[in-house]
Amino acid sequence: MTALIQQLLQQCQLAGEERLTATPCHGGQINQAYRVEGSGPSLFVKLQRTDDADFFTEEARALTELSEVGGLSTPKVLAQSAVGDVQALVLTWCDLSGLPAAGFFMAGQQLARCHQVTQTSCGWYADNLLGTTVQPNDWQSNWGDFFIEQRLTPLIHQLDEPALTRRLPDLTAFHDCFREYQPAASLLHGDLWSGNLAGDKQGRPVFFDPASYYGDRETDLALTELFGGFPAEFYQGYEAVWPLDAGYPRRRPWYQLYHILNHALIFGGAYLSDAQHRLERVLHDN
Fold first, then answer.
1. Which residue among 127, 145, 170, 191 is the active-site one?
2. Rg (CA), the chain
3. Which PANTHER family does this entry report, sorted A to Z (predicted)?
4. Which among 106, 164, 249, 275 would be 20 to 30 A from 154, CA to CA?
5. Please, is 91 exposed, middle or buried when counting C-beta atoms within 10 Å of its C-beta (0-12, 13-18, 19+)?
6. Is residue 27 a contact partner of residue 87, using CB atoms and an 8 Å limit?
7. What are 87's strand-pairing partners?
8. CATH code, 190
9. Domain closes at, from 71, 92, 113
């Protein structure tokens, strides 16, 4: 594997003939990942065996946009490369650890400022991946339509469970959440759970593994409250910059449902029954 990584790095002029060391490390659900060390700074290299030459394109674009436009601290994108059917994304290496309370407060502030970057429509420049799931991102002006048509409905169709599909006509109830709330199309991380936020050596936040698009900022916040949640300091930091709308608790279950549906598609098991119960609950409450 080291020889392949060296070839990939040579193609993008990030390595020469020097001896490299490639150490396997965590790289998300679907990719192989390595810390690569040589004569220069350490690199983080993600690999995926696929014929899709654009496999990492939207992740690279999201990291760059979150950093350069949204002001978040992310690993810097250095290059994309390919050898045969192996695609590579090369990032700066970051020594990461847990965030202290002050770091979570700072992360909340940074995310709120990132959300203040907006577009006139909801969507992204191309479809991207949420885990292993293709996430449609055609631009739409109406957020409610976007969320129903490009988030909930595709997953329910893919799951193909009668208890879910019979409820497809009822998803229009989501529109009732927006009688007095019109969200801006904010720049979103898109997959912000505790596994995709950490601290650098100075205890400052580093965001990574995005599935970005422009949409309601509350979707990012809703996911942070799922799968373990973030500490109170994170939300205090966020609210210090941009307080949440009073109706957020009503919309939060809808946004969390999307991620439970995605987990049901990827992992099955208890996530599927959880998705069914959550869908019934949001429809009942609306």
1. 191
2. 20
3. FRUCTOSAMINE 3 KINASE-RELATED PROTEIN, PROTEIN-RIBULOSAMINE 3-KINASE
4. 249
5. buried
6. no
7. 48, 82
8. 3.90.1200.10
9. 92
Task: List the strands of the sheet with 118-119, edge to edge.
Answer: 118-119, 185-187, 214-215
Where in the sequence is the domain holding 188, given as residue range(s)? 101-285
- Residue by residue, pLDDT tens for the chain (286 residues) are 788 888 888 888 887 777 889 999 887 778 999 999 988 899 999 999 998 889 999 999 999 999 999 999 999 999 998 899 999 999 999 999 999 999 999 999 999 999 999 999 999 999 999 988 999 999 999 999 999 999 999 999 999 999 999 999 999 999 999 888 889 999 999 999 999 999 999 999 999 999 999 999 999 999 999 988 899 999 999 999 999 999 999 999 999 999 999 999 999 999 999 999 999 999 998 7
H or E segment at 120? Answer: none
Q: Which two tokens stand for residue 30?
A: 């679907």
Count up the domains in the chain and report the number. Answer: 2
**Global model pTM greater than 0.85:** yes
CA distances from 23 to 11, 18, 37 (A): 20, 16, 8
Q: Do 125 and 246 belong together in one domain? A: yes
Catalytic residue check, 191: yes
Burial degree of 209 (CB within 10 A; 0-12, 13-18, 19+): buried
Buried b (16+ CB within 10 A) or exposed e, 70-81: bebbbbebbbbb
